[in-house]
User: What shape does this take?
Amino acid sequence: MVVKNTNLLEEGTDSTYDRKAEVKAFDDSKAGVKGLVESGVTKIPRMFHSAKLSNIENSASNSNLTVPIIDLKDIHKNPVLHEEVVDKIRTACQEWGFFQVINHGIPISVMDQMIDGIRGFHEQDAEVRKEFYSRDKKKKALYFSNLSLFTDQAANWRDTFGFAVAPEPPKPEEMPSVCRNIAIEYSKKVKDLGFTIFELLSEALGLNPSYLKELNCAEGISILGHYYPACPEPELTMATSKHADSNFMTLLLQDQLGGLQVLHENQWVNVPPLHGALVVNVGDLLQLITNDRFVSVYHRVLAQNIGPRISVASFFVNSSDPVEGTSKVYGPIKELLSEDNPPIYKDISIKDFLVHYFAKGLDGKSSLEPFKL
Assistant: This one.
């Protein structure tokens, strides 16, 4: 491992290598990582090489660390259970920034069909996929590989089909036929569940259940269906680089292959797939408005020589468009502040925050630092 990283660092000084040209040719192909696999590559292109793969072999070996699993069954019928769940969510958001929910109301059959629908899109003939390939974030349904491909130091081994859910979803005819019906059904159910989670998060902060919803934290929702093909050289790249999410909250549906890890107490901890569960994680904007009471933590996905791995991430944010983003301003929630707990962050518009987030790309650094008082 060390030898390979040393080689990569030496390669980085090679003056004959034209990274921009390699990235452009890859993007121009409109076939994504799946296209590379379809072409039969046995060595991954250099644009995917990451020199920051330290500690992978030491990660997630501590079986005593487990991301909390929270059962939402009967929380609307049983006040005692409801209070217990709110307490568990409060602790999870303060200590982990991540938890899994079960018995959340979305049928397992719908979740399985959504995984199959995303797989179906990515496994269509390349010419059919290419019709949706775009980097125009204003499009309501688009296919791409690596959102910040041209700014990241190393590309990730994954492709994505993304679409808007709210405030303005695509018309059905704008969605690919292979996953149209299930994407529409799943997005409605995940939107409803998101509202429920925001109510529980509000209560966990000691606020009125409707508080975060009334702040429009769920006004904008987008879904990204990631496809991670088997990688011939998984030790040289990442499926998703270390990052924290920019939004208020993410709900993640993952298949059974695994690979997702969170950084907890300076250790990478596996988030094991649990059939029927959804992963919930705090985003940077929720950390900002809760004045660090809830934490947005680093996470990543390891490349694997098996696959494809499929995941479906639903992002809840006031606006997902960094160009036309809303000018609505957010800062630490006043009800959470006191003499003992003064504001840590300045007020910031969603637009300014997202412009900063997308400009810096997945560089492994916090997006919140520039906005501290």
